Amino acid sequence: MSDVASELSEQELAELCALADGTLPAERRAAVEARVAASPELQLLLDRQRRSLAATRALAGEPTPESLRPTVEAQQRARDSRRSRAWLLPRLGAAGALVAVVAVVAVVLSGGPGGPTVAEAAQLADRPPSAPAPRPLGDSGTLLALEVEGVAFPDLLRSFGWRPVGARRDKLDGRNATTVFYEKGARRIAYVIVAGAGLPRPSGAQGTMREGVLFQTLRVGGRPAVTWRRDGRTCVLIGTASPDELLDLASY
């Protein structure tokens, strides 16, 4: 059964996670539930996912859906009897790789305790540029001469009319985070790339698949934002543009 998670595509795994936390769109629910019903391995994966999600939410102090409340209350009682947090790691070791995968996915969905978040990365857009805008890379008109661990920033001027106007480098919980700012008329957007492994995916965000990449649309500080991963690095695009326009720019 430990191979079932590795056989799922990113979209299938995202839908299974969304089914577990109650955010799966109604039009997809029947199909996903039917697939789970036909697979004992997926049933176990879904059950473990729900339990791990309940544990993570309990530790983080987040609101818990009614369907998960009995599990959370039981885990809180366990914490009160000095088995707090210690129970999770032994269970993971005993249950094997499948449970480890599920626990990691649960932390990803909920944002998880510790470490930088997508929302924190998006908030770097509020800081002013501290360096000049990067130059276009060659004559391609598609990339700028600035990258983060091999992931280059796009040149959005020729195709979309967004002109790079500045950049800055920051530390986000110890990680390098680079931001390029673009303007189009009176509007401004910020494109953030965070170094290192992908940040936890935000829970409750609307997912859109384009060419095999999962883009998630959310709001940060009242503004629309889109986050996704390129070559394992987390990217965030936020600013005064519509969610659809941000999606088009992100998938360029």
The average pLDDT is 78
Assign the CATH class of the largest domain: Alpha Beta
Low-confidence runs of at least 5 consecutive residues: 81-113
Based on Cα principal axes, name the global outline: elongated
> How much of the sequence is in beta strands?
25-35%
Domain tally: 2
How would you characterize the overall build of this protein?
By secondary structure, the protein is α+β, with helices and mostly antiparallel strands. The protein folds into two domains: 4-110, no CATH class; 118-250, 2-Layer Sandwich (Phosphorylase Kinase, domain 1), CATH 3.30.200.100. Residues 81-113 have low confidence and may be disordered. It has helices spanning 4-7, 10-21, 26-37, 40-60, 69-83, 88-95, 97-110, 118-122, 157-160, 243-250, and strands spanning 143-148, 151-154, 163-172, 175-184, 187-194, 206-210, 213-220, 223-230, 233-239. α4 (40-60) crosses α5 (69-83) and α6 (88-95) packs across α7 (97-110). Strands 3-4-5-9-8-7-6 form a seven-stranded antiparallel β-sheet. A two-stranded antiparallel ribbon has the order 1-2. It is 41% helix and 26% strand.
What features would you highlight for this structure?
single chain; 252 residues; alpha+beta; Phosphorylase Kinase, domain 1; seven-stranded antiparallel beta sheet; two-stranded antiparallel sheet; 9 strands; 26% strand
Question: How does the SSE layout of this entry go?
Answer:
Elements: H1 4-7, H2 10-21, H3 26-37, H4 40-60, H5 69-83, H6 88-95, H7 97-110, H8 118-122, E1 143-148, E2 151-154, H9 157-160, E3 163-172, E4 175-184, E5 187-194, E6 206-210, E7 213-220, E8 223-230, E9 233-239, H10 243-250
Antiparallel strand pairs: 1-2, 3-4, 4-5, 5-9, 6-7, 7-8, 8-9
